[in-house]
């Protein structure tokens, strides 16, 4: 059982006029009393004269009732029902009941549509008759106005009948003048002949105009045919410069292809060159940073060794530190020089012994370590700068 089937069943039963209210909860559990009542009401609605026993007290009576209902609907309405589902009297029975209610509901809808159509036809007929009556009323008013105007004109003409009778009597009594009549007739005949001649002249002019137009049309046709033949001749003849044009066009296409290839190669090479310069610049900057770190490390090592030296060599170490500090200040204040010059200058200063080397054992050891570190720095810087970017 679906909620949709149960809702449709309740709505159809309400539309058919079932007196009892059917809730959606009535078929949650088996309810044979309600199912038998609905079946009997539907059968009576379909065939009021049918005679089906309504006793459903015992099991045998219920089976007989279901069979009688199914047999009646199968023979009369050609509706095949599942007796087992009807006997269950639950949600599955609703689907079987929908087969009967849908037939009755559709019949009721069809009848309602026919009644509405008949009512619309009656209304349209009434409207049509009313429209025709309005048209007749307008025609009657128009005829009444015409009768009035014509009656007034007839009255005026009858008022002039006395004078007209006198003139008519005199005209009838007067003898006819043959000469005058003949003269008038000849004038009328002459006018008619003049009109006939004028019409003939117009016809002749039309014929001449038609001949002129036909001649012009024929001339235009000949010109059209001649131009068409000339066009065909020009289309069939190959121009003299066409070979050269095609050759130049092919050459231009080749040159354009070469140009495209070179342009693509140039763009690719420029991109590669930019990438190479960028990589070289990064390597050079990395080498400079490494060199700067090593110089700082060397300076710290020198300071540490100088601090750990003996008191006898303190004056010499202090003098060397002052000289190194003054050299650093001069480097900062002087113009920027290349890393190689700075390195060579630092190397020369490093290899120069700061004081007589035979003063003490600590001083000799300090000089040896400084020289060793400076040699390492010079070697690394030389290798780095030889691999540096060319444009730097």
TrEMBL record:
It holds the Pfam family Cluap1. Transmembrane segments: none annotated. Residues 312-328 have a biased composition (Acidic residues). Keywords: Cell projection, Cilium, Cilium biogenesis/degradation, Coiled coil. GO terms for cellular component: cilium; intraciliary transport particle B; microtubule organizing center. Its main location: other. InterPro entries: Clusterin-associated_protein-1. Residues 303-335 are annotated as: Disordered. One of its GO terms (biological process) is cilium assembly. It is found in: Cell projection, Cilium. Belongs to the CLUAP1 family. This is Clusterin associated protein 1.
